[in-house]
Write a structure and sequence with these properties.
single chain; mainly alpha; Methane Monooxygenase Hydroxylase, Chain G, domain 1; elongated
């Protein structure tokens, strides 16, 4: 099965490259919101087509490996996990493009202040995304479980973001349209975090063979050593 292992290694590299592309799209989309940069927004929207193409390539590669090698046990779980994670990354790319579309619309509105928490959530989601793809490549269940616990922190940041937007709305009803656009961006950020969480669940399935959907983490994030977070 040397040939299969070689193909699996190629899949790992391709998934890391796709993850890096998605992370960069999210970073640029949020920057476009902050700076009213239409050029960056359009770059993200254009990149979404590239992400879609890579997603199709990865899925076809996985189906080819299943047909040619009929893998079992851990190799089979890895390929199944890659199919699912590949789809999650494509959805994250779609959401980054949605954020970029809102950036284009906001550029035409009065420049209302962007809530402080918005880039914080973006940095946190991108950090989780990078770490969870490392966990996939390294087949690291411990890291994936820690990242599942980190989802609670993102939920708290999302609540904080909504409160900031509500305060802004109360203070500035004259620019309702722009603030409503920011509310939709906040919702996209929550969904981005959900997809990153799904990837952590898929990594756990790959390593341990147990489906994690709908199971609640029983260890608080602060007990799992989540202090070493990264930013941009």
């Amino acid at each position: 099965m040397v040939h299969l292992q070689r193909e699996i290694d190629k899949l790992k590299r391709k998934m890391l490259a796709l993850g890096a592309l998605v992370e960069e799209s999210l970073r640029l989309a949020v920057q476009a919101i902050e700076t009213h940069d239409v050029a960056k927004a359009r770059k993200v929207i254009a990149t979404d087509t590239e992400i879609d193409e890579v997603e199709v390539e990865v899925e076809e590669e996985c189906l080819k490996l299943l047909a040619l090698y009929q893998p079992v046990a851990k190799d089979l779980r890895f390929i199944v996990a890659v199919v699912k994670i590949n789809s999650e990354l494509e959805r994250i790319g779609d959401l980054a493009a949605n954020v970029a579309e809102r950036a284009e619309q906001l550029a035409e509105e009065y420049p209302v202040p962007v809530p402080r928490t918005l880039p914080v959530i973006s940095d946190r989601v991108r950090w989780i995304l990078g770490r969870v793809l490392d966990a996939l490549v390294n087949q690291d269940a411990v890291a994936a479980r820690k990242l599942l616990a980190a989802d609670d922190e993102v939920d708290e940041l999302y609540k904080q973001l909504l409160e900031e937007l509500k305060d802004e709305l109360r203070a500035d009803l004259d620019h309702l349209d722009a603030i409503v656009l920011l509310f939709s961006v906040a919702r996209y950020m929550e969904r981005l975090a959900d997809h990153a969480n799904n990837i952590a669940e898929d990594v756990l399935y790959m390593v341990e063979g147990e489906i994690q959907r709908h199971q609640l983490p029983d260890t608080p994030a602060e007990l799992l050593g989540l202090d070493d977070r990264g930013g941009a």
